[in-house]
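Data's thin. Show one?
=====
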Amino acid sequence: MVNVYYDKDADLGVLSGKTIGMIGYGSQGHAHALNLKDNGQKVIVGLYPESLSRATAQEAGLEVADVPDVAKVADILMMVIPDHIQGRIYREQIAPNLRAGSALMVAHGFSIHYREVVPPDTVDVMMVAPKAPGHRMRELFQQGIGVPSLLAVHQDATGNAKEIGLAYAKGVGCTGAGVLETTFKDETESDLFGEQTILCGGVTALVQAAFETLVEGGYPPEIAYFECLHELKMIVDLIYQGGFNYMRFSVSDTAEYGDLTRGPRVIDEHVRENMRGILRDIQDGSFAREWIAENDEGRKRFNPLREQARSSPIEEVGKQLRSMMPWLDPKEV
């Protein structure tokens, strides 16, 4: 069992007198910065000069400065900018200004684990990774609940890295829900695997294939959409509440029998072997190198794939049907 830490295990006093630099003010950055500010911490947000987020952060009562200037004064520097640009921003703007004895933190281990960012041995290096999107994290913090988080220490130069990491986790509201101790390797590789094989890649590919199979079989796209996508939320909610057993308890016996007998035919050994291949690519760094190269080369593959996915038939049908259901608060990209 992993170690789990709560409010009683973390001391906000560890952050007393320290300046926390927040590099980025997107989904995660705004939640971290505002939660820490509300918990009495001194936070400075680091952004590039033309960033549109500067005004947003300032309107929220936060101090804003250029990234190099924040790196110079921060005792704890949290990078919450996209994975693929962390290496360049670190090398050009942070590394020359990072002070010995300070702490460098990330909310996802990608750049450290795959050595896009290689910190000097004079600084603490930790990860606090809340397990929720930033806006949800902020929302629950304001309700006094918080979201669970992961904590990992990559480098303990001062002997206080874990205590600082726990204090930071408490500052953003995560120790109320529980902070699980892990490693950069385990967090990074399991996170990428989950995203690719189930949470994003696996789910969307499975839904898309099922939708297309019904339409090819002569069924109306609207019916296929409801059966293969719309009702998915109900099933996921049941699993989220009580696991597979509660979901199977809640659906009909017909659905449960189809689940138990046909599910293994869809997700067969061939699919499992594909998953093992994806895991190997993550473990040996192949995916990381591919993703960094994709960005360095101008996203020549990613951008066409994104555009193709956004204009697929299931998206067009879904857009029309969601517009008929305003109670869903439908969103359009």
User: Anything to note?
Assistant: The first helix runs from residue 27 to 38.
